[in-house]
Amino acid sequence: MTGIGRDVAFDDILAAAERLRGVAHRTPVVTSRTLDARTGGRVFLKCENLQRMGAFKFRGAYNRIAQLTDAERRRGVVAFSSGNHAQGVALAAQLLDVPAVIVMPSDAPAAKLAATREYGAEIIEYDRNTMNRNEIAARLALERGAALVPPYDDAAIIAGQGTVALELLQDVADLDVLVVCTGGGGLLAGCALAAVALRPEIAVYGVEPEAGDDFAQSFALGERVEIPVPQTIADGQQTTSPGELTFPIVKRLCAGILTVSDDGLRAAMRFAFERLKLVVEPSGAAALAALLDGKLDVSGKRVGAIISGGNVDAARYAAIISGG
After folding, report:
1. Residue 2 has pLDDT above 50, yes or no
2. Which of 56, 176, 292, 323 is the most exposed place for a label (fewest CB within 10 A)?
3. Model-level pTM?
4. Is 96 exposed, middle or buried (0-12, 13-18, 19+ CB in 10 A)?
5. Is 261 considered catalytic here?
6. Which is nearest to 234 in space by CA: 163, 288, 297?
7. Which residue out of 235, 308, 309, 310 is catalytically annotated?
C-alpha cells in the first residue's frame, strides 16, 4: 500500500492514470484571446472545475482508495477536509463501495457540506480555530480500524493529482511555464513531478493567497514554516504549513511560489465567468489570478494554468463576482 513514507515517482503517476481511466473525466483545455492579450503569452487552462465532484481532488482520492485491500475497504476510510477533498473521498468511496467518515470544519461552505453528505459520507464537524483536525481524524481511524486518507501528504494522493499535468502536457505540446494553485501541495507536487518528467526545461510555479503564504515563506527559507489559519476567501487554501512529503518535491522541482490577493481572486473569478463562461471557486482561480495580475512575466511563452475547482455556494459566488 502506498503511503506518506514512500517517495513518489513519475511511474506512480502513470499507474494512477491507468486506474483513473474511464473513471475520472479527462477535463478540457480552454483558451482565450483576451487572456492571451492581457498576459502577452499563449495560455492553456486545464479545467478541473469540470472534473467529477467539481475539483481535481477526486483523482487523488480515487487513486488512494482503489489501492486498499479488501479487508481495508470493509473497515472504511477517514479523511479531513474543508470541502473538495471531502467530496472527492466521499465520491470515490461510494464508487468503490467503501464506508467513509469525513472530518470537516463547521464553517465549511454549505454546498461542500451538502455534497459530501449526498455522496453518502458520515460527517464529523470541528472548529478549525480551536481544534486539530489531524488529531480528530487519527483518533477516529484508530477507533474504527479505518484507513486514513490525507488531503495531500500521501504518495498515492500526490500521484493521482499529478495526472492533471500529465493530461495537460499530453494535450498541449511545448509548454514553457506551468502555474498551479497550492494549499498543502498535493496538486503542485504531483504536477511538478509529471511536468518535469515530460518536459525537463519547464518552469513550474505554485500560487497561494497573500494571507496564507506558508508555502512562499517556506520556499524562501528552504524549510517548512507554520502560520496561523489564514483569513482568506480561498477556503481550499487555508492551510497553515506545507506538507511533509509535498514540500521537498516542490522545493526540488519548482521555480517559485507566487501570491495573490483576495481581490485578485475575485477579479479572476469574474473574468472566468464573463470571458470563459466558467464557474470557478476562489481557490480554483489562484493560477488565473496570478497571470491576470502580472505576477509572472509570460510574454511570448506557452503557459499552462490549472483551474483547480468550481465548488462554491451560489449566493456567495454571485456576491463575489458582483463585487460584494
Report:
1. no
2. 323
3. 0.94
4. middle
5. no
6. 288
7. 308
